[in-house]
Write a structure and sequence with these properties.
By secondary structure, this protein is of the alpha/beta class. The protein has a single domain, classed as Aldolase class I (TIM Barrel), CATH 3.20.20. Helix content is about 45%, strand content about 15%. The protein is built from 11 helices and 8 strands. The protein has an 8-stranded parallel sheet. Strand 3, helix 3 and strand 4 form a beta-alpha-beta unit. Helix 1 runs parallel beside helix 2, helix 5 crosses helix 7 and helix 7 packs across helix 8. The longest helix is centred in the last third of the chain and has 19 residues. The model has no long low-confidence stretch (mean pLDDT about 95). The protein binds 1,3-dihydroxyacetonephosphate. 1,3-dihydroxyacetonephosphate binds next to strand 8.
Length: about 250
């Protein structure tokens, strides 16, 4: 089974509308001819319209960084799936470790967000990953198992699901999981998917690696059997770096 590589940028809380639009134009203009991986950028909510406009006519898709599960209502500060679809969004990140660490996101709320996204027809990019303390305590497999199974509860079809393995200790730290370390967890995630949905369905799901992925380490990560792309923070904010990651995806 060959899965199409997905190179996804998580811009986090960076770039104004003008800056985001300029970055997208620069990326689009620099894309190589020929086979491309799937390419996604996820800007902050407020800049989504400008980024969608800038991405028009290019190979770039636009995602959001979070979404609420309710259709509408008294949820100050939240955004619904309908609002994202209306803005031209196709994907949404849920359960990013920064949401879990700083904003009280739990396995339960990650599940509700993921379910709502998939039901609305958005691709949910579900993030899982262990902290340094959990890794050092030998709890990585248990954490991944719990987060992955809970996030998928009530989701019957994997067609709109992407999983991102992001070891928390590798995010923004310059420390990358070695390709073997990452592959071991990716294989575990695929085994969980096979257990829940069957081996054939599990083979179709992209599992991305995230955590200090950059042009220098991307080729060896993407060469691993179960690493199907990247969810990239810092290196997605500069067009030359992101384009190099796209090229790594094209060659993987
Ligand atoms: P960095 O690539 O900056 O480590 O961030 C990874 C990440 O959190 C992507 O969601």
């Amino acid at each position: 089974m060959s899965r199409r590589i997905l190179i996804a940028g998580n811009w986090k809380m960076n770039k104004t509308s003008a800056e985001g639009a300029a970055l997208v134009k620069e990326i689009a203009a620099g894309l190589p001819a020929g086979n491309l991986p799937e390419i996604l950028v996820c800007p902050p909510y407020l800049t989504i319209p400008a980024v969608v406009e800038a991405a028009k006519g290019s190979a770039l898709e636009v995602g959001a960084e979070n979404v609420h599960w309710a259709a509408s209502g008294a949820y100050t500060g939240e955004v619904s799936t309908a609002m994202l679809l209306d803005a031209g969004v196709t994907h949404v990140i849920v359960g990013h470790s920064e949401r879990r660490q700083y904003f009280g996101e739990t396995d339960e709320t990650v599940n509700q967000r993921a379910k709502a996204a998939v039901e609305a027809g958005l691709v949910a990019v579900i993030c899982v990953g262990e902290t340094l303390a959990e890794r050092e305590a030998g709890e990585t497999a248990a954490v991944i198992d719990r987060q992955t199974r809970k996030a998928l509860e009530g989701i019957s079809d994997l067609a709109k699901v992407v999983i991102a393995y992001e070891p928390v200790w590798a995010i923004g730290t310059g420390k990358t999981a070695t390709p073997d370390m990452a592959q071991e967890v990716h294989a575990q995630i695929r085994a969980i998917l096979a257990d829940l949905y069957g081996a054939d369905a599990a083979e179709t799901v992209r599992i991305l690696y995230g955590g200090s992925m950059k042009p220098a380490n991307a080729p060896e990560l993407l060469a691993k059997k179960d690493i199907d792309g990247g969810l990239i923070g810092g290196a997605s904010l500069k067009a030359p770096d992101f384009l190099a990651l796209v090229a790594a995806g094209a060659n993987a």
